[in-house]
Amino acid sequence: MNNDNKQRFEIRFLAVVRKTLIAVAKDTITRPGLKHPLSKVTQEMITDCLDIVTSRQIAIEKSSGIHTNMKPVYTDKQTVQSFSIDDLKKTLN
Asked: Model pTM?
């Protein structure tokens, strides 16, 4: 297996692991006041695994030059644009 195939395999592997861990977290969500089926230690282990997977995904993206540092934008949150008063005055004049 050449280096490019190894990297593609690792990318696929990390994506599958990440999706599986997220699915486990979603499937075990409980209502407030009920006992969670997973222990606190197991929940922390899932969080740690997700952190490691995400860190490795970012490292691969950075090494291949495709990492963009983009963060999700939530449509229900308003974005605020800032500008200087001087720039506004220049535009109005």
From this structure: 0.65
Whole-number pLDDT of residue 61? 83
State the average pLDDT over residues 17-30. 93
Range(s) of the domain holding residue 71? 1-93
Q: What is the DSSP string of the chain?
A: --HHHHHHHHHHHHHHHHHHHHHHHHHT---TTSPPSS-HHHHHHHHHHHHHHHHHHHHHHHHHT---------TTS-------HHHHHHHH-
Q: What is the pLDDT of residue 72?
A: 66
**Structure-token pair, residue 63:** 């090494």
The full length of the chain comes to: 93
Domain count, the chain: 1
